[in-house]
Design brief:
This protein is of the alpha/beta class. The protein has one domain: 3-Layer(aba) Sandwich (Leucine Aminopeptidase, subunit E, domain 1). It has five helices and seven strands. The strands form two sheets. A five-stranded parallel β-sheet has the order 1-7-6-2-5. α1 (73-90) runs parallel beside α3 and α3 (110-125) packs across α4 (141-152). The radius of gyration is 15 Å and the shape is globular.
């Protein structure tokens, strides 16, 4: 629990239709380096692919384009999470799902993703009204472990 919000962690979830609002990937770049400098994540000849997660939920927010190459990726994830939670409150949604596959594919470090989502949930929980459950849906065991660590150490990662 984070405040009065029940938080669950799962490895994949094929059916998201029961969630009032989901946050998923849309056009997360894979295999490209915007700077063209080569190295990790760069593609020869500037070819790349994008990832978009399918959904059955009525209300969908999308992660902004973010990857390992983005220096402000932590703030981007925190802000997107906070915005989604505010949107959920406005829609009077009870359950929100955060799907991290696109962030994982974009090579955003799992601990950064987990820490920023959990920090935003912790901040939101102080004034939450309609949101009662949050589903953190990872696509790798490493991301699950990172979420578990962040939730177990919430006081440390939220600076008190």
């Amino acid at each position: 629990m984070v405040g009065d919000i029940i938080v669950s962690i799962s490895l994949g979830r094929p059916n998201d239709s029961e969630l009032g609002l989901v946050v998923k990937a849309k056009n997360i770049e894979v295999g490209t380096n915007k700077r063209g400098a080569g190295g990790v994540g760069s593609a020869i000849g500037a070819f790349g692919i994008t990832i978009q997660e399918a959904t059955s939920s009525e209300n969908v927010e999308h992660w902004p384009s973010v990857s390992m190459a983005d220096p402000n990726r932590r703030a981007t994830i925190y802000d997107a999470t906070s915005k989604a939670l505010r949107t959920a409150e406005g829609l009077e949604v009870k359950e929100v799902g955060f799907f991290t596959m696109g962030l994982e594919v974009g090579r955003v470090p799992t601990w950064e993703t987990a820490e920023e989502i959990v920090r935003a949930v912790h901040a939101h929980a102080k004034n939450a009204e309609s949101v009662k459950r949050i589903a953190l849906v990872a696509s790798s065991p490493t991301q699950v472990s990172s979420f578990q660590y962040a939730l177990d150490n919430i006081q440390t990662i939220t600076y008190g």
